[in-house]
Design goal:
The structure holds 2 protein chains of 2 kinds. By secondary structure, chain A is of the alpha+beta class. Chain A has 18 helices and 10 strands. Chain B is elongated, with a radius of gyration of 20 Å. Classes of the chains: A alpha+beta, B alpha/beta.
């Protein structure tokens, strides 16, 4: 009964979305207040209905209702509860339902919280959001019904694959989706502005919190995915330039560019068409991601069941939304540009360079991701594009970007004094040069590009700190009060820029100076790695609650000095019939020593165990940097000016905050 | 001129969309990367028999001079294998084909139970519990089926279950391989 109610709720949600896609926007044109305000109700009703449907599907998973086909195919009565719940979105239909749920929730959030936005703009935005809802709800109902029944019901579900039972796989999709789908609301704002034919600083300010919220979640989602790949899956790496990773990275890049260009629109009333274009492109890239993952267009390690028919439907949806919005852009945007004049040396010029470089980087990733498709279409040759291409093309674009990023915040709006700024930064440049030489000495060779990049990361961190200290006049009395008075958005910027510098160090360190070795070991074998000696002391059989483990005991020494003991395991679960590898890690800020064991090498090498050792220098900087990026986003989001519904301060202090 | 610039994103999107549309049509499967083993001798791996079953194991010599042979990679934990099993069983019986198997990363008890339930059409089964044989054969997932010639040369690799549309494509490849023998 509950699955039927869920399906019925979906149909009702589609009705609500249909009403919402027409009434408010017509009302906005006719100036009818009641019609416009109807969006508030329909948006909330729609979100509640979709949430009910989602709850119904989750209920079917929790009670293992094997009369529902989706549950039969993707669950099993013996699965742990967490994975039963996570199974709700671990498949095509369920994840699409989650997608639609987040879409509806964002719409409802705008309806309820965005009380400072003019009614007409809000009505149009919610109507556009409803167009997207209609598209995806109909897709769900017509081609991917999650509540389809099966008769006669089988005794048990089909899926007990232990490989898919991973906590990371359970929580990473929802976070990523919040980011992905969150950009839908920014897209709706952009399309509504195009329809209204007006973009002004106020518009940019209204859109900013939504962009920031989506960006922050997406940053967290990507970082978490990377973290799980590194620690839990034990793939010995954190980024693989896999198509599915790339399609989540592209909206991030475009969203980052959007965050920055929207600032210019807000402060200087220019870059309007560009900001609108970025808003459209960011969500379009999210849609492209959804399409690529679900249509089987490209090969990837992660993919849902491939179904070309569904692919065609999504492609149709994409065509309508992306082509429609871009056509609207081509029609309306030329009239919108104020032709804002700005000096070649100014904060806005710096942000323009930032935008051009990020857009180029994003285009590179897009090209590399789709290149196999292009090539196959034209020459019928099958290839895959891997890390070498991306490293060779992405890094040369990002390095200048990071250099400019250090200078940018020092520039003032309108007209900046570049010689003055450079003079201010000259001591920093000297320090960076010295630091680079020190790194060169410590690294003792290694790739030169890595050393230079490391120096650039130091530059970014130094320049950001100097800018922050200068703004707060840190070494003069009353600095604390000044820091507190400054808008949180500007502290957020400092935090996020520092985070990127830290993240960069982790990325460079762990890829350029990583050491990796595989050895066959027996009792007493000593394997040297990255200045450590690993001594294999033997294997012990240990009985766990529902598994039997073979635990290796490894002693780690450095130059003969005892450091620590590591105990990687190999577990056999007799009931589930599976084997898992539990690696052990010695985590320090300097780097991770990562050890895992595999079964005895082969029959003729009895007594020998396969030992995999990885040393990843600075890898923890990646996670620290990611956390700083998210914190920076959150800090900026908590800024008083952006807080939805917050009363204005009595004394406006927002004159030129980031100055 | 300025208007043309504003049209550029639309034009680019249309071009990418065109490629995507092409990519979806025509039964294209991006997972079908041609195997590096095609036209090469089968890898030299010897796999022991599954414990608890009479069917012998599989080695390179078993694939030479015994006529055209299908090598099916299966596992009891793999859903699609269950789907293709009756089709392969019937296909080999009707067309008088020799079929052998690699039991990939599977527990012997589970594999034996699976074969008892669904029937065992295989002349030989190599147990590849460690997955090393799979690496040698270039297996990217289960199920996968290879067509091996009388001389022990890999003629064709089919990833995924031999069902529906896949069954037709597999049969075409099989007919071509027979014509060439």
């Amino acid at each position: 009964m509950i699955p039927e109610l869920g399906q019925f709720a979906l149909a009702l949600a589609l009705m609500a979305a249909l009403v919402q896609s027409l009434l408010p926007i017509i009302g906005a044109t006719r100036g009818d207040r009641t019609w416009m305000e109807s969006a508030q109700t329909t948006a909330v009703v729609q979100a509640l209905l979709v949430a009910f449907a989602f709850g119904a599907l989750m209920h079917a998973y929790i009670i293992s209702d094997f009369t529902v086909l989706n549950v039969v195919e993707n669950s099993h009565s013996l699965k742990p509860m967490l994975y039963k719940v996570a199974g709700t979105w671990g498949n095509h239909e369920g994840s699409l339902l989650l997608w639609v749920l987040i879409l509806a929730l964002f719409g409802a959030a705008v309806a309820v919280f965005a009380s400072n936005i003019p009614l007409a703009l809000k009505a149009r935005t919610l109507s556009v959001q409803a167009w997207i809802s209609v598209g995806f709800l109909s897709f769900l109902i017509l081609t991917s019904n999650p509540f389809e029944r099966v008769f006669p019901p089988p005794l048990d579900g089909q899926d007990l694959n232990p490989l898919l039972q991973d906590f990371g796989l359970a929580i990473h999709p929802p976070l990523l989706y919040i980011g992905y789908v969150g950009f839908s609301i920014v897209f709706s704002f952009a399309v509504a502005a195009l329809i209204e034919g007006r973009v002004d600083p106020a518009w940019a300010r209204w859109v900013r919190p939504w962009t920031l919220a989506a960006w922050t979640s997406l940053t967290g989602g990507i970082a978490l995915g990377s973290w799980w790949a590194y620690y839990e899956l034990g793939w010995g790496g954190w980024w693989f330039w896999d198509p599915v990773e790339n399609v989540s990275f592209m909206p991030w890049l475009a969203g980052t560019a959007l965050l920055h260009s929207a600032i210019v629109t807000e402060k200087r009333d220019t870059f309007k068409a560009w900001t609108i274009l970025l808003a459209i492109l960011t969500f379009s890239l999210s849609l492209l991601g959804t399409f690529i993952v679900r249509s089987g267009l490209l090969t990837s390690v992660h993919a849902f069941a491939v179904d070309p028919e569904r692919g065609v439907y999504i492609l149709g949806l994409l065509a309508v939304s992306i082509l429609g919005s871009l056509a609207l852009f081509a029609w309306r945007a030329p009239a919108m540009e104020s032709g804002g004049l700005f000096a070649p040396i100014s904060r806005e010029a710096g942000l323009l360079i930032n935008n051009l470089l990020i857009a180029t980087a994003c285009a590179t990733v897009l090209f590399g991701t789709l290149y196999p498709l292009f090539l196959e279409a034209i020459t019928n040759e099958k290839i895959s594009v891997g890390p070498p291409f991306f490293n060779a093309s992405f890094i040369p674009i990002t390095l200048p970007l990071i250099i400019v990023m250090g200078i940018g915040p020092h520039l003032s709006w309108k007209r900046a004094d570049l010689p003055g700024v450079l003079a201010r930064l000259k001591w920093l440049a000297v320090i960076v040069l010295l630091a680079t030489l020190v790194i060169l000495w410590i690294a003792n060779g290694g790739p030169l590009l890595a050393v230079i990049s490391m120096g650039i990361a130091v530059w970014l961190i130094g320049a950001t700190l100097q800018d922050w200290a200068r703004r707060a006049k840190l070494f003069q009395p009353g600095a604390w009060a000044r820091i507190r008075r400054q808008p949180r958005a500007s502290h957020g910027m400092t935090m996020a820029h520092l985070g990127l510098g830290v993240l960069m160090m982790g990325a460079i360190g762990s890829s350029a100076w990583k050491s990796d070795t595989v050895a066959f070991a027996e009792k007493g074998t000593i394997v040297p790695i990255a200045g450590f000696e690993i001594i294999f002391e033997g294997i012990e059989q240990v009985r766990g609650p529902n598994y039997i483990a073979q635990v290796a005991s490894l002693k780690v020494t450095q130059d003969g000095e005892y450091i620590t003991n590591l105990y990687p395991e190999r577990r056999v679960y007799p009931v589930a019939g599976s084997t898992t590898t539990e690696s052990d890690i010695r985590q320090t800020l300097a780097g991770d020593l990562y050890v895992s064991i595999a079964e005895p090498a082969s029959e003729d090498a009895a007594g020998l165990w396969t030992l995999r050792l990885i040393y990843e220098p600075l890898v923890n900087f990646l996670w620290i940097g990611s956390v700083m990026l998210v914190l920076g986003g959150a800090l900026s989001l908590s800024d008083r000016r952006l807080r939805v519904g917050a009363p204005r301060r009595a004394v406006p202090t927002n004159a030129t905050p980031a100055e | 001129m300025k208007r043309v610039l504003f049209l550029l994103p639309l034009v680019l999107a249309v071009v990418i969309g065109g490629f995507a549309l092409w990519g979806l049509s025509g039964g294209r499967d991006p997972a079908q990367i041609p195997s590096a083993l095609i036209s090469k001798p089968v890898p030299d791996v010897t796999l022991p028999p599954i414990e608890g079953i009479a069917t012998p194991g599989l080695s390179k010599a078993d694939l030479q001079g015994q006529g055209l042979t299908l090598v099916n990679v299966f596992a009891s934990w793999c859903g699609p294998c269950r789907a293709e099993h009756p089709i392969l069983t019937r296909m080999t019986a009707e067309q008088d084909l020799r079929i052998v198997a690699i039991n990939y990363k599977d527990k012997p008890e589970a594999a034996v139970a699976w074969l008892e339930e669904l029937g065992n059409p295989y002349e030989l089964i190599g147990s590849d519990y460690s997955g090393r044989g799979g690496i040698e054969w270039g297996v990217t997932g289960v199920p996968e089926t290879f067509i091996v010639s009388n001389d022990g040369i890999v003629l064709y690799r089919f990833p995924g279950p031999v069902v529906g549309d896949g069954q037709r494509r597999f049969q075409d490849a099989l007919d071509a391989a027979r014509a060439a023998e």
